[in-house]
Automatic annotation (TrEMBL):
<keyword id="KW-0378">Hydrolase</keyword>
<dbReference type="Pfam" id="PF03266">
    <property type="entry name" value="NTPase_1"/>
</dbReference>
<keyword id="KW-0547">Nucleotide-binding</keyword>
<keyword id="KW-0067">ATP-binding</keyword>
<protein>
    <submittedName>
        <fullName>NTPase</fullName>
    </submittedName>
</protein>
<dbReference type="GO" id="GO:0017111">
    <property type="term" value="F:ribonucleoside triphosphate phosphatase activity"/>
</dbReference>
<dbReference type="GO" id="GO:0005524">
    <property type="term" value="F:ATP binding"/>
</dbReference>
<dbReference type="InterPro" id="IPR027417">
    <property type="entry name" value="P-loop_NTPase"/>
</dbReference>
<dbReference type="InterPro" id="IPR004948">
    <property type="entry name" value="Nuc-triphosphatase_THEP1"/>
</dbReference>
């Protein structure tokens, strides 16, 4: 089972994926992965923090980073992402990979792209968020026949968690 959740920025994708991770952990399912959070200073977004599900964290992107890898005004630090992803290589079939998100910042990393490609093409479990904008690699993931795509909106925000949990229980991570 491979689930991709897409939606506009700020709609609640990270919140949804955290709730799905908590649900899986309560069911005794092993999860690995990461999520990203905004870094705000005085109400202004300054960058993004990355936090693995086992507690490792670092700054993925920040306005103050002077790097050649940039998304808008943010310099991107792929080293921390690759440290986290490197621990998941090679992928395991007894784990659900929780990835927030497949987006421009993460795609600067060839290791990350290889990891996602191996998960999508292999017999692995994946729950991920993905950028809604047109990015060729993200479009490839979202259009892959192995992917079940869900779009999170204001109108389905409350129902989508239940819908995905029902799908997981019906189609099986627990078999």
């Amino acid at each position: 089972m491979k689930i991709v959740i897409t939606g506009k920025p700020g709609i609640g994708k990270t919140t949804l994926i955290k709730k799905l991770n908590e649900y899986l952990k309560k069911k005794g399912v092993k999860t690995k992965g990461f999520y990203t959070e905004e870094i705000r200073e005085f109400g202004e977004r300054m960058g993004f923090k990355i936090r693995s599900l086992d507690g490792k964290e670092g700054i993925l992107a920040h306005k103050s980073f002077n790097t050649t890898k940039r998304v808008g005004k943010y310099g991107v630090n792929i080293k921390i992402l690759e440290e986290i992803i490197g621990e998941y290589m090679p992928p395991s079939m007894d784990v659900v990979y929780i990835i927030d998100e497949i987006g421009k910042m993460e795609l600067f990393s060839p290791l990350f792209k290889d990891f996602i490609k191996s998960i999508v093409e292999g017999n692995y479990f994946l729950i991920t968020t993905a950028a809604i904008s047109k990015i060729p690699f993200v479009d490839w993931v979202k259009s892959n026949p192995r992917i079940q795509l869900f779009q999170l909106t204001k109108s389905n925000r409350e129902k989508l968690l239940t819908l995905i949990i029902n799908k997981i229980e019906k189609e099986g991570i627990f078999k």
